[in-house]
């Protein structure tokens, strides 16, 4: 025991711990979790040098403190000037949010927002006081007033300093246990740093409700856990605002309790070997038809299978089309239709988002995908896939019909026409056979070809790598191909990773090699890598555009056409 306070730790059983605390008059654990952390200071004081905490004035026991305050009140009430003049100064060392709801009778508050601000306030309050002036200090648990006592004695030279041993907490407990018949000299609510927030000692309502301005002694924290603002709020306002500080936080709490947020995360038993697979595993999967497009491409195009967009890239293309202004897409290099179907799906989403309920779009208006392809076999396969998509859909029925193309069915019909039209929901699509895609795009840009074709929101360039710059220039030279503010998406801008070797000057060429691992060193690979690197270098320095390159698959550059 020290100053009538038990400072020795008392071990508690699990059962005793569960009821050692108090919450609204009901027993509860004193805290939810225990964390032990090393700190240089228990309470940050902002002092330039440490003080001797052993020399901090008299540690006054709670009952003696109680009697002192009673005598001080009697002196004030007596009206005797001599008695009033000899009464001690009583300083509340806590911050303003604590003193606003509870103080000892006759105490002066420092009205600080942070404890480190106390020193300037004390200097101002005591600048004209004799050094033997009796000063009594207190705080919540007896730590801050020790520091204040040390400061008053060692830095300011006061000789008659005392503090409440154990703080308000010890006073409250001691008075209840040893003198319950006594009227507490502390009025209102003691702010505490646990789940209770405030421990009500008397019924005095000293605080102002932050919501309505009425008097209250209730303390709490905003129920919006991401706000958690400490607040003084009356019962009525607490009920009206669901325990929150504002309509905004109330709405957040209500939303967090809705069924959407009550959905439990589904445990995924799949083990992923790399981040690419993990990212794909936690992305919305594509519809069933797309997997069959992949299989058909592998079956009918053999070594060209690697040229189709993969799942992640396909979903990106679909989403970009979905958020475009009108869902108008120009695809240069459609191959077997995987990306074409992704773009058409996205174009239909865009049409739906802007409530375009007219007939499906075409060259002149609305959501529309124009796909250019020079390989006849690839064009035939793409047409078959688009026919499935537009007639049966993207789901299981479409997948089964697409799978049938590989069976004993009719196979891949040969398309004789140079233009094939399709309609999917409110979006249109046109496959166009070209001998030179760049010449076709340049003809649109100059107005020679397709005068009635309105410009596109997105141009996807997956064609001749050596002519990337010319394709981009055709899109930038006028607004007939790509709208101002539209984007170009250029594929294969990392070209199997060899662009890094080109950039670093480390490409080695082997003239004789049949090993597939040596393909990087072939002359063709070097030529294409150099062309792609030259394109990357040029376009990133073009003031007409903004570029972001994605390290996705073989590299995608998304290039926004700026307003001149």
What would the principal axes of the Cα set say about the shape?
Answer: elongated
Main sheet overview: 8 strands, mixed
| Total number of beta strands | 22
- The helical percent reads 25-40%
Rg computed from alpha carbons, rounded to a whole number of angstroms: 39 Å
How much is the average pLDDT?
89
End-to-end separation in angstroms reads: 82 Å
Q: So how many helices?
A: 19
What is the strand arrangement across the widest sheet?
17-18-16-15-19-20-22-21
**Pairing-aware structural class of the strands and helices?**
alpha/beta
Bin the strand percentage: 15-25%
Low-confidence runs? none
Give a topology summary.
Elements: H1 14-17, E1 21-23, E2 26-28, E3 58-60, H2 62-78, H3 81-86, E4 89-92, H4 96-99, E5 102-104, E6 108-109, H5 118-126, E7 135-138, H6 144-154, E8 161-164, H7 167-178, E9 186-191, E10 198-200, E11 207-208, E12 215-216, E13 219-221, E14 230-232, H8 235-240, H9 247-256, H10 275-281, H11 289-301, H12 311-322, E15 328-332, H13 338-353, E16 368-373, H14 376-391, H15 396-404, E17 419-424, E18 427-433, H16 437-446, E19 456-461, H17 468-476, E20 482-491, H18 498-504, H19 523-540, E21 545-550, E22 556-561
Parallel strand pairs: 3-8, 4-6, 4-7, 7-8, 15-16, 15-19, 16-18, 19-20
Antiparallel strand pairs: 1-2, 5-9, 9-10, 11-12, 13-14, 17-18, 20-22, 21-22
């Amino acid at each position: 025991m020290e100053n009538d306070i038990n400072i020795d730790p008392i071990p508690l059983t699990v059962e005793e711990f569960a009821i050692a605390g108090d919450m609204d008059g009901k027993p509860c654990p004193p805290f939810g979790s225990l964390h032990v952390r090393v700190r240089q200071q228990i309470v940050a004081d902002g002092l330039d040098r440490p003080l001797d905490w052993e020399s901090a004035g008299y540690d006054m026991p709670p009952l003696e403190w109680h009697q002192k305050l009673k005598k001080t009140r009697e002196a004030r009430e007596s009206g005797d000037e001599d008695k009033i003049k000899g009464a001690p100064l009583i300083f509340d060392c806590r911050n303003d949010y604590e003193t606003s709801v509870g103080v000892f009778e006759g105490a002066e508050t420092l009205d600080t927002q942070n404890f480190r601000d106390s020193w300037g306030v004390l200097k101002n309050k005591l600048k004209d006081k004799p050094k033997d002036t009796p000063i009594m200090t207190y705080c919540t648990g007896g730590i801050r007033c020790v520091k204040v006592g040390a400061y008053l004695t060692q830095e300011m030279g006061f000789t008659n300093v005392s503090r409440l041993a154990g703080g308000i907490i010890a006073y409250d407990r001691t008075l209840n246990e040893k003198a319950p018949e006594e009227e507490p000299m502390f009025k209102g609510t003691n702010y505490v740093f646990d789940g209770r927030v405030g421990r009500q000692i008397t019924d005095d309502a000293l605080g102002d409700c932050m919501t309505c301005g009425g008097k209250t002694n209730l303390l709490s924290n905003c129920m919006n856990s991401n706000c958690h603002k400490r607040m003084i709020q009356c019962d009525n306002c607490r009920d009206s605002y669901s325990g929150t500080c504002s309509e905004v936080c109330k709405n957040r709490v209500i939303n967090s309790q809705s069924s959407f947020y009550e959905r439990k995360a589904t445990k995924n038993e799949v083990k992923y070997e790399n981040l690419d697979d993990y990212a794909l595993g936690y992305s919305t999967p594509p519809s069933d038809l797309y997997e069959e497009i992949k299989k058909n491409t592998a079956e009918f195009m053999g070594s060209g299978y690697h040229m189709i967009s993969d799942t992640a890239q396909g979903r990106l293309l679909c989403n970009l089309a979905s958020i475009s202004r009108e869902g108008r897409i120009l695809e240069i290099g459609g191959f077997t239709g995987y990306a074409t179907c992704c773009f058409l799906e996205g174009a239909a989403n865009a049409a739906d988002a802007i409530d375009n309920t007219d007939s499906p779009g075409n060259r002149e208006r609305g959501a529309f995908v124009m796909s250019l392809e020079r390989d006849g076999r690839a064009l035939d396969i793409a047409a078959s896939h688009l026919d499935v998509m537009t007639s049966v859909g993207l789901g299981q029925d479409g997948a089964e019909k697409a799978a049938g193309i590989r069976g004993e069915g009719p196979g891949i019909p040969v398309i004789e026409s140079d233009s094939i039209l399709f309609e999917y929901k409110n979006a249109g699509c046109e496959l166009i056979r070209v001998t030179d895609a760049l010449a076709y795009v340049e003809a649109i840009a100059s107005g020679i070809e397709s005068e009635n074709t309105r410009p596109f929101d997105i141009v996807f360039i997956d064609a001749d790598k050596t002519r990337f710059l010319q394709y981009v220039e055709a899109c930038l030279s006028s607004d007939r191909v790509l709208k101002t503010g539209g984007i170009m998406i250029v594929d294969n801008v990392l070209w199997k990773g060899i662009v890094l070797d080109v950039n670093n000057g480390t490409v080695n060429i082997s003239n004789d090699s049949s090993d597939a691992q040596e393909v990087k060193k072939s002359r063709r690979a070097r030529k294409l890598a150099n062309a792609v690197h030259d394109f990357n270098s040029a376009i990133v320095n073009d003031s007409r555009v903004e570029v972001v390159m994605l390290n996705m698959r073989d590299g995608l550059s998304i290039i926004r056409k700026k307003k001149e």
